[in-house]
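Why do we bother with holo predictions? Because pocket geometry can differ from the apo form. Keep that in mind while you read this record for nicotinamide-adenine-dinucleotide.
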Amino acid sequence: MNILVTGGAGFIGSHTIIELYKAGHTVVVVDNLSNSSKESLRRVAELAGVEKIPFYPVDIRDREGLNKVMESHTFDACIHFAGLKAVGESVEKPWEYYENNINGTLVLLDVMRKHNCKNIIFSSSATVYGDPAVIPITEECPKGHCTNPYGQTKSMLEEILMDIQKADPEWNVVLLRYFNPIGAHPSGRIGEDPQGIPNNLMPYITQVAVGKRAELGVFGNDYDTPDGTGVRDFIHVVDLATGHVKALQAIQRQCGISIYNLGTGHGYSVLDLVKAFQSATGITIPYSIKARRPGDIATCYSNPAKAERELGWKAQNGINEMCRDAWNWQRQNPEGYKA
Ligand code: NAD
Ligand code: UDP
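The structure, written out:
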């Protein structure tokens, strides 16, 4: 299949492109580089063994720009990663988040349907479950209240996509609800490259390990969890990437609408991850306990059985590989792609 990949220069997109090539697909990337750099695509080409990844520096809100891309290529499906994703920033800048993520997706969908490409895989998030009613979380678990505008955009976009599919059954929509992607390509050539102080746990840990930050702040140790710190379902980004390749099968069998959790089904606490990182790398991570972070929940992990049953997809990497590969990337690229 020929796939339009929006946001393909970013963390998850870049890893997914490699898996798409491996499976024999081709891609065209659209990214405004607001949170990424062209260097990632240069390295992706190297890893995929192709000369160049076809790339347009286009914003998905730019209707004319997108039109030109879709006039120049024929696409079987779109994998839609493009979006702003920083939870804290979304609280400060709600307008910017709603405008970029929702308006951007509406423009994309309109241009897609005008070119008769009605197959889309959307990057959703476990955040749509809010404080989950059931653990482990199945896809039947009711959606919950999102405590921030970023989460709201994911939840609203799921509804928008479902309504559009309902009104026009020619659409096939796959909603992938990611749990906590960490790690990096085992080569250490591509990985997560956060700008400024990392919001997420693993990039914070690797920056402490590389000496860029003094210590990790652990946000709360008084949750109702085995060690009091938050429990999450960390998943290796390469496993998440292969989940997208498998999700194309749902598109091929004209699924209408399909929803899948992409997680491992295992919950690890913040301190479990610190310990796993230390034993995978031999580096001690100093930490201190801080106040809870507003909006955080105690426990979130998936039941990933539906993706295994219907797509034959299952995460292959454990916490040790996640830590090893995250460190391998950070160690080789202490300044991310800037170096
Ligand atoms: P990322 O920021 O690395 O990648 C997103 C890419 O989209 C970036 O390259 C950015 O430049 C691009 N982009 C943003 N707005 C754009 C626009 N208007 N037009 C064109 N390009 C635009 O993030 P990621 O971690 O790779 O996440 C990919 C997707 O998965 C996002 O939609 C994110 O919300 C979702 N997601 C991520 C996580 C996570 O923990 N990383 C969890 C759940 C869901
Ligand atoms: N966390 C932490 N210190 C940090 C960043 C995160 O203790 O510097 C905790 C956070 O409170 C949560 C877990 O790590 O319990 C995962 O947070 P992250 O932001 O990585 O992902 P989230 O699950 O919030 O999307």
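Residues 6-7, 9-13, 31-36, 59-61, 81-85, 100, 104, 123, 125, 178, 181 surround nicotinamide-adenine-dinucleotide (ligand 1) (CB under 6 Å).
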